[in-house]
Amino acid sequence: MTDSVGKVENEVITLKGQLGELDNRLEEVSLDAQSLADQAFEKMMGEMAKMREEFTGELLALKKENELLKEELTLLRRATVAGGATIQAGPKVEIPKPPKYHGKRDAWEIDNFLWSMERYFEAVHLEEDASKINVVTMYLGDDAILWWRRREQDIKSGSCSIRTRDQFKEDFKKQFRPHDAAKVSMMKLRELKHSSTIKEYIKQFTTLVLEVDDLPEATQFIYFIGGLQRWAQQEVERRNVQTLAEAIAAAESLVDYRDTRKEGHSNDSKGKGGGAKPTDRSSTSSNKTVKKDKAKGSSSSPSSSDKPSNRGCYLCGGPHWARDCPGRQKLSAIIASGGESSGDDAQMGSLRLFISVRATPKAEESTKVVKVSTLPCPKGSLMFVDTLVNGRASKALVDCGASHNFITEKEAMKLGIKYTKEPGRIKTVNTSPVPILGVAHKVPICLGQWSGTINLTIVHMDDFSLVLGLEFIDTVRPFSFEADGSIMIKRDQGSWSVPVTR
């Protein structure tokens, strides 16, 4: 019994100790909870204070903005009351409507239609793709509108999707633009030549260039210069143009003589020096001309019959005045060994100018004056001979106005002629001196039955490959022209005949 009571007492003591520990733990937990609650409260109060400060700042900013708006409103009211009657609305700009596209399969027309629609969208400030597609379809007609109706059915059925402007343009070009349009335009651009007026040539060239995508500007520049006529090409190159825009501007500034020569020159018939009266002889011959025209049934006026018809440049036949002919520089060439050329230097082709001139007498000239047109005209203006140069056949021009023998570099290579570079220059009329390519000494040559050696100067020439000048004529002297048109070279050893063609 005593043992049982002792055990119970021990258990009671143990329970009291555990209860004491629980009280201590509860007290600690209570303290921790109170600390957490205090921290949370402090944090919440700090955030509330911060929010109050931010709200106060925003409220002050709104008050300031409200005050500024009130001031501006007051100023606007005063301005409206003071000068409102003088305020006028700006003029309304009328935007032209783009033309409709009816389904013609032409690359130039398709590109123009799409370009005009883009400009129209920019003018009306339309930016959404869906709205742009709807507006474009309103400017379709005939075959084009039928195509779009089919595409709308395909879009509704889900077989295709056109949501952006680029997708519409791609599908539109795929349907109507020829697949080989760029290739055909490129072929036309390569074959384009300046056969009519300069304005027409520039228009055709610009149209073809726009139809070819991604064509480099350098290639465009080469095609444009290469398609011009020789006289226009030389004038454009003379201005040292570097870009296509500069070349087109230079070509447009050229005066096409074919446009101006068709216009009447009414001012030419007016008197000069205060209205001088015509002489008796001119009026008499004018009357005779009128009577002669009436006898032939001609309805032309005397003033038009007195003037010779203008046929352009008499040197190259181009549509420009002879004084502006780029080929004038080919009429004379001067060889200089160094420094400026003297009066004893060589000249080439100067007499060809006199051969090219043809005089046409006027109707009012007296019959006592010798008319140049009645003089007998030779069969040809130029003399050519068949030669063997360095053992190879070639055709040479015999020019009394050239003091040296000239040959082009291409012809020299063809004939197998070797030359050496020498310090010399060639100067053409109205140009700066340029160096010669070289001189070939003692080149064997045969003309008919005659043979010998000559010196050849290698230069740049456009019209002829081989020219025999006074240097050759001095070599074969004495010679004479025979009745059959050949040249007879005479020596103590004998004579040789050289056939000549004109």
TrEMBL record:
Signal sequence interval, chain numbering: none
Alphabetized InterPro entries for the sequence: Peptidase_aspartic_dom_sf (IPR021109), RTL1-rel (IPR032567), Ty3_capsid (IPR045358)
Residue intervals of the Ty3 transposon capsid-like protein domain: 89-259
Bias kind Basic and acidic residues: ranges: 258-271
Highest taxon listed in the record's lineage: Eukaryota
Ranges annotated as biased composition (Low complexity): 297-307
Record keywords: Coiled coil
Record flagged with keyword Coiled coil: yes
Coiled-coil ranges from the UniProt annotation: 19-79
Segments for region (Disordered): 258-310
PANTHER family: LDOC1 RELATED, RNA-DIRECTED DNA POLYMERASE HOMOLOG
Protein name: Ty3 transposon capsid-like protein domain-containing protein
Source organism of the structure: Chenopodium quinoa
